[in-house]
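The instructor's notes for this session suggest beginning with a concrete chain rather than abstract definitions. Hand out the sequence below and ask the class to guess, before any prediction is shown, which regions might be ordered.
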Amino acid sequence: MALKTVLDNLDDVPEALHAEYKEIDGKFVLDLDGIDVHPTVVNLKTAHERQKQTNRTLQSDLTAARTRLEGLPDDFDADAYEALQAQAEGKAPAKTDEQVAQLRQQLERQKQTELAKKDERITTLLGAVQQSVLHGGLSKALDEIGVDPSLKPGAMALLMSKGALKLVEEDGQFKAQVDTDMGPMPVKNYVSDWSGSEEGKVYVKKATSGDALGGTGARFTDNPWDSSNGKKPNLTKQQQAISENPTKARQMAQAAGVTPNW
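After discussion, reveal the predicted structure:
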């Protein structure tokens, strides 16, 4: 009678053979010497090792396939590729005009997809540049003419809504300019002129006293437009101020109650 290798109990095993079993995890297991060389065990081990090698080969092939497929367009035609490769290796007849046209269309679609992605990227970057240059330039110009900080957001929105503020490129550099009836004008000059208009005046910070104070709160100790306390405007110094710093000259004139006309 053949001995069973695993038993739940030893009730049916002769007493003399009880010593041949070991209790492991609640089971009685036959203690065999040289089990590794038993033909059945050898066959199982061989089959297991063969399966492990097969799994390793399959994993390697899968990794290689994934590497080759990365970057292929969604509409990649594997059959067309294989046919083209076979033709290049001299294993297939030359392509017909229809097949050549199909391949050309496939390549054209791939090219158009790539160009569309690049155009989208360029549009995004250009939008960021426009936001930075236009808003930054306008904000700086408003600060220079002494706009009231509490009214600055409104002034920004008003000037942007006019639609004349544009981004232009010159010699590889982007800058903001304003299209006017007299032609393109730098944002700084446009805002300075606007600050002297009836619309712009309300946004400029008012002088804090009867002295010659500019829109930024800076005191002009020698204001050639000042006519207070019997003073006479100095036309020579006015022209000099306009020539040297038009923005500051406008502030000085406004501080003295004079509307700039330049």
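Then share the key points. The helical segments are 39-69, 78-88, 97-144, 152-161, 187-195, 198-201, 235-244, 246-255. The longest strand covers residues 173-180.
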